[in-house]
Specification:
Length: 264
């Protein structure tokens, strides 16, 4: 496809499929019950951190964690001790994650919010004026969450961007919070969507290779940045605009025929 045709094609898919009726099943739907950004950002980080494995189990696990907290996750973290969080999360299991990992993540969030007022403000302290993407800030932010938790290490729930992996779940979290449209609920208006990086997994990697956005062989951070730069030519202010739409082809069974038509 030439550039103009590609943009028209992507915009057509966005208009057709970037709608809430195509969200389920997706951990993104867990955010929709939280109107207060103070709650939503916490739910988003929990949901994104657990977003690996079968999607229905992801939804079950996210709901399990949230059910162990009060109706307001923000109020819960502001009021309870690290020991209480450990106790409340005891017995939780999601594939390789255990309650101790979740407790470590939650106490890291707790420390960041108590120090800066919100996760957004904590993240913004990690942004530098000369950053061209959110990757440097993401490295600093993840390290802040890991180092300040009162309950040990969150393990694989919180990726280490500096190690070079695509950090799909952390970039997914940032997409949910920095973008606002019919699907992404937003809540972080001061974090530029133009600096986001595509949340890259093996499915999106395969699609982007078909679209000619990368010739690399590994879905790592370098590849994610290259693909993001490719999308930037059609949406410079919002390079991850098409992520939700393209990812539907691996989630919604009724779109499998279109996936075969578009991507072979």
């Amino acid at each position: 496809m030439d550039g103009l045709y590609m943009k028209d094609w992507l915009d057509g898919l966005y208009e057709k499929f970037n709608r809430r009726r195509f969200v389920h099943p997706d951990p993104l739907e867990c955010l929709y019950d939280y109107n207060d950004p103070a709650d939503r950002e916490i739910v988003a980080l929990i949901a994104a951190s657990l977003a690996y494995g079968q999607v229905r189990q992801i939804l079950k696990s996210v709901s399990d964690v949230l059910s162990r907290m009060d109706a307001s996750p923000y109020a819960y973290l502001m009021e309870v001790s690290g020991e209480r969080i450990q106790s409340d999360m005891a017995g939780f299991v999601h594939r390789f994650a255990r309650g101790a990992h979740v407790a470590a993540l939650l106490t890291g969030i707790q420390a960041a919010v108590k120090t800066h007022g919100s996760l957004q403000q904590s993240f913004q302290t990690c942004l530098a004026d000369d950053d061209s993407t959110l990757l440097p800030a993401l490295c600093r932010f993840a390290e802040t969450l890991r180092s300040n938790g009162a309950c040990g290490e969150p393990g694989h729930l919180l990726a280490c961007p500096e190690k070079g992996s695509a950090c799909k779940r952390l970039n997914l979290f940032l997409r949910w919070m920095a973008r606002k449209d019919r699907v992404d609920p937003g809540g972080w208006p001061d974090v530029p969507a133009s600096m986001l990086i595509i949340p890259l997994d093996t499915h999106m990697f395969r699609i982007c290779r078909k679209l000619g956005l990368t010739a690399r062989n590994q879905p790592n951070m370098r590849t994610a940045i290259e693909i993001t730069e490719g999308f930037r030519q059609w949406a410079p202010a919002d390079p991850v605009k098409y992520d939700f739409t393209l990812s539907r082809f691996g989630i919604r069974k009724e779109l499998s025929r279109q996936a075969e038509e578009y991507f072979g």
